[in-house]
Design a protein that fits this description.
Largest sheet: 4 strands, parallel
Radius of gyration: 42 Å
Strand content: under 5%
Structural class: mainly alpha
């Protein structure tokens, strides 16, 4: 025991501590680490009063018993003041419950920014800068702050002061090292700290715990910071567990920054700490969200990654190449410009090998590489291979969803891109499944970009299959989200705009069709659904009766985009449009016209207009009827009825058509039925409103004049046709039937005329086309 000296340096933090003290307490407990100036704080608190400082920091005494003795002494001497320096393990609750006292904790002794500034100097600009630097380094540890203020070169000494005190302090205050792990966070606020611990720890520690432990403190600018020298000690401590633990914490820090402060802040912190693997993992987890906001940002981020890291993967190179094709309107992938040869395409082969390996244990990385494989294959013109890759990717996605939690936006993007791939490859049923799942996960993610894009794709798929009702519902979902889309809005609107144009045609609203076409580019661009755009442009020309212009458009683009035009979707649309052009211009399908692999509905229509109902019925047998295929609404039923009733409608058939139209309300189906000979007045029997009747009448006015009906052969002409088909010559026919060659010649001349043929080969071919 002894009186405190009257001449001493006051601890800079004491005034702040005493701001709320009424001066009645004569006992002070101090629990703080060595190096914080705890002895100075104790002596400063006693000041010129009678008192003493007791150091129990060694922890080798019975604190409860000693406190009881202190209480007796304080009661016996009303002038006595005692300051006790406690061990880090001391229970403040237990000790302070025994008698009124003051408690100074570790954080109370750490100087704040203003106290550090007062200690450093009178306040010149240079001194203010120096004080701020010292505070960011030492965090107000008094001994370290004084060392740095006296000598800027004393960093090693200051670091050692903090290390010595902090190691002992943490051994008891953070025995399992959980709070020390926060050193891997580059910035601090309540949300970021909780997000960080939520990544890997069953116990979500808080900012208050870090502040209470003295590891994080106010930065003097309204935020929080961890002093650099404190951080170094903590990182060293955690690093003793091994590299594996460090990798987990680096990743958690980057993810927490991305979740609470944005991807930009996460990137900057990862670059500053050279946490390259954590940065790459964060990009794999968040690239979809970044892409939907601004794909250019992905390029900026990738540029920060050292080349030796980026070059380790083929995926980065492919991804950057694709990002280079982005502009403010969207991402228009490059169309294939070279003849596809899958066997010799090394990138395609490497991607296939990598996905096979990665799909064994599918995760975010595997799914991202799978998307890149599909995109590369589409860009290179490997449409069947891309569809196969899409199928494998969706199988991997389903396994991944069973095993782990995935970013819903990534899941939606996988299904969206798989749907596009499958639709381009002509696998519409699978594309529909992918789109539907993609929309579900888009709803889970809440991302307007995905909701609008998938809904637009579904609307286009439906309208191409003839399901106008479903297309309308998907367009409504598209419209509900498109207003919230930022980057890529023009791209996302494209398929919906094309679907609306088809819907206008379905209503026979030619003026509305022209308006919808005005929303599309006047020149075909590189959007992957460019074949649909071409078909619409061709239909616009067909509606105007400019048949050669429609054919020339398709022919020129097929030549110009030779490999992209080989996509199954493009081939189907172009072939069907060319066949429709012939039907509209010539009034049917002429005998001998090559119609293999064309839309069987158009083939059936061509035969009906050409007067060959039997061939029409045969073509209708080729129309897929299963759900999700190209149903084309009521057309199968209408054309089947017309083929079975070539003389025109009966009351029963009109009733069937009336019922079907009442359910669908699609006018263009009636217009096509009305083109068939004998069915031109069908609209007048269906109770259409005046506007619908006017539109239908206008469409039928544009309809072509049907080709002559199928020729009717005499019995003799039929016999000659069978004999010609058997390979018999004119002389052999005459001898077999006991007729003169002149008679057979006359019969053959009549046969050729009816079949519009000039020789035997053409006659036989035309007879087959007529179904004779």
């Amino acid at each position: 025991m002894g009186a405190a000296s009257g001449r001493q340096t006051i601890h800079p933090a004491l005034a702040r501590f005493l701001a709320w003290d009424d001066g009645t307490c004569r006992l002070l407990f101090i629990r703080a680490a060595a190096g914080t100036g705890r002895e100075s704080f104790a002596r400063s608190w006693i000041g010129n009063k009678v008192g003493e400082v007791l150091d129990w920091s060694g922890g080798d005494i019975d604190e409860a018993t000693e406190v009881d003795l202190l209480v007796q002494r304080l009661r016996a001497d009303a002038t006595l003041h005692v300051a006790v320096i406690l061990a880090p393990t001391a229970s403040l609750w237990d000790l302070s419950s025994r008698t009124p006292c003051l408690v100074a904790k570790h954080r109370d002794l750490l100087l704040d920014a203003s106290e550090t500034a007062q200690l450093v100097g009178p306040g010149t600009a240079a001194e203010r800068d120096e004080a701020r630097l010292i505070h960011e380094l030492s965090g107000g540890w008094l001994a370290a702050t004084r060392a740095l203020a006296a000598d800027p070169q004393a960093r090693p000494r200051a670091q050692q002061i903090i290390r010595s005190g902090l190691v002992i302090w943490l051994a008891s205050r953070d025995p399992d090292g959980a709070l020390s792990e926060a050193a891997f966070l580059p910035a601090y606020d309540r949300r970021t700290v909780e997000a960080f611990y939520g990544e890997f720890s069953p116990v979500v520690h808080t900012l208050d715990e870090l502040v209470e432990a003295g590891l994080v403190q106010a930065d003097g600018r309204g935020g929080w910071m961890m002093p650099a020298m404190v951080r170094k000690v903590l990182v060293e401590r955690v690093g003793q567990r091994g590299r594996e633990s460090t990798v987990v914490l680096e990743q958690a820090a980057v993810n927490a920054m991305a979740a609470t402060r944005g991807v930009g802040a996460a990137v900057e912190s990862a670059v500053a700490r050279r946490s390259w693997q954590a940065l790459l993992n964060m990009l794999l987890e968040n690239w979809v969200d970044i892409l939907m906001r601004n794909p250019k940002q992905l390029g900026v981020i990738a540029a920060k990654i050292p080349r030796f890291i980026a070059n380790q993967t083929e995926y980065m190179r492919i991804g950057l190449r694709m990002l280079g094709q982005a502009d403010r309107d969207g991402l228009a992938l490059q169309l294939p410009g070279f003849e596809p040869d899958y066997a010799t395409n090394q990138t395609a082969q490497r991607l296939h090998r990598d996905t096979v390996r990665l799909y064994a244990k599918p995760n975010t990385h595997a799914l991202t590489v799978g998307i890149l494989e599909m995109l590369h294959l589409r860009q290179s013109g490997f449409y069947p291979e891309a569809a196969a890759a899409a199928h494998r990717l969706r199988e991997a996605l389903h396994r991944a969803l069973d095993a782990q939690r995935l970013n819903p936006a990534l899941v939606s993007m996988v299904d969206l891109q798989a749907g596009i791939t499958l639709q381009l490859a002509g696998r519409d049923a699978e594309a529909r499944q992918a789109y539907e799942q993609g929309f579900h996960w888009a709803q889970v993610s809440g991302k307007a970009f995905l909701l609008a894009d998938v809904a637009g794709k579904m609307a286009l798929l439906d309208v191409l299959e003839g399901d106008s009702g479903s297309a309308m519902r998907w367009l409504a979902k598209h419209d509900a989200s498109i207003g919230e889309v930022g980057w890529g809005k023009v791209m996302v609107e494209r398929t919906a705009a094309m679907a609306r144009a088809f819907m206008a045609l379905a209503r026979l609203d030619y003026a509305g069709f022209d308006v919808e076409m005005g929303a599309l580019p006047s020149v075909v661009d590189n959007d992957e659904f460019w074949p649909v755009h071409v078909q619409l442009l061709a239909l616009q020309k067909l509606n105007a009766g400019i048949f050669d212009a429609a054919r020339d458009l398709i022919s020129s683009l097929r030549q110009e985009r030779r490999y992209a035009a080989a996509a199954p979707l493009a081939r189907r649309l172009f072939d069907d449009t060319l066949l429709l052009a012939e039907i509209l211009e010539r009034g049917g399908v002429r005998p001998g016209t090559g119609i293999e692999n064309r839309d069987p509905l158009l083939v059936a229509l061509g035969h009906l207009l050409g007067g060959n109902p039997d061939a029409a019925l045969a073509a209708l047998q080729e129309v897929p009827l299963t759900g999700g295929m190209r149903r084309r609404g009521n057309l199968v039923l209408y054309l089947d009825i017309a083929a079975r009733n070539p003389r025109g409608p009966t009351p029963a058939t009109l009733q069937r058509v009336k019922q079907q139209h009442r359910d669908s309300g699609v006018l263009y189906e009636l217009a096509i039925l009305g083109m068939v000979p004998g069915w031109s007045e069908v609209g007048r029997h269906l109770e259409l409103d005046p506007e619908e009747l006017q539109r239908l009448g206008y469409a039928l006015d544009l309809a072509p004049t049907p080709l002559p009906r199928r020729p009717v052969l005499t019995v003799r002409e039929q016999e000659v046709l069978r004999q010609l088909r058997a390979g018999m010559t004119r002389r052999q026919i005459a001898e077999a039937d006991y007729r003169s060659e002149n008679t057979v010649k006359s019969q053959m001349r009549s046969l050729y005329r009816k079949l519009e043929a000039s020789d035997v080969e053409q006659a036989l071919a035309n007879a087959r086309a007529w179904g004779l």
